[in-house]
TrEMBL record:
It comes from the Bacteria. It comes from Streptomyces xanthochromogenes. It holds the Pfam family bPH_11. InterPro entries: PH_bac (IPR057446). This is PH domain-containing protein.
């Protein structure tokens, strides 16, 4: 092949790309409809779960004078579930909404302030335990990365998951809440004193 023939080949007109705009638009519209359907189904499921949990009483609010703060924590609220069932999310009364959270522990109980979501208060008598865990309803962290507080509300035991901005605070919270909920381990009879 000569140099002149190479130039002639390069100078030949190229055919224009053929675009099937109707097909592309059809695919885009179909994809958008599919995404809208999935979103609608998820929303319906959320509302259905809320209706199933309608028997859950209204959440308590903090007392006017809760007392001196034992501990304070800034972080995230990751949701609430039925105690012991980390995938059974509770959505009634806004408990399913993830948000930032400010926690304050006093002798009166646990005050949870959530900007942009419903605040709630757990009276000390309703606190059951606290522990470190790795997951709750759609949020999985490293082992011990989540502070889970178990409390009773109505006739239901609830696990609520929190993560502090400083995870090293979690063990102090577990110890403080568990010390508030401990029942006396001493015998109720005077067996030991008689000996």
């Amino acid at each position: 092949m000569t140099y002149a023939s190479l130039i002639n080949l390069a100078a030949e007109e190229k055919s224009a790309e053929v675009t099937n705009w109707g097909g592309r638009i059809g695919w885009v519209v179909g994809l958008l409809l599919f995404v809208a359907l999935v979103y609608w189904l998820m929303r319906q499921g959320w509302q259905w779960r809320g209706r199933l949990q309608a028997d859950l009483p209204d959440l308590p609010t903090a007392p006017e004078t809760p007392g001196e703060a034992k501990l304070e924590l800034s972080g995230r609220y990751h949701g609430s579930t039925t105690a012991g069932q980390w995938l059974d999310r509770i959505v009634a009364h806004g408990l399913g909404v993830r948000s930032k959270a400010e926690l304050t522990l006093t002798d009166a109980g646990l005050d949870v302030v959530r900007p942009g979501a419903n605040d709630f208060f757990v009276p000390a008598a309703q606190l059951r335990e606290a522990r470190l865990d790795k997951g709750i309803a759609g949020k999985v962290l490293t082992e011990g990365g989540l502070l889970v507080v178990t409390w009773s509300h109505g006739d239901k035991l609830i696990d609520s998951g929190f993560r502090s901005d400083r995870a090293e605070q979690h063990p102090a919270w577990v110890a403080a809440i568990n010390s508030m909920t401990e029942t006396s381990a001493q015998p109720t009879t005077t067996e030991g004193a008689a000996r």
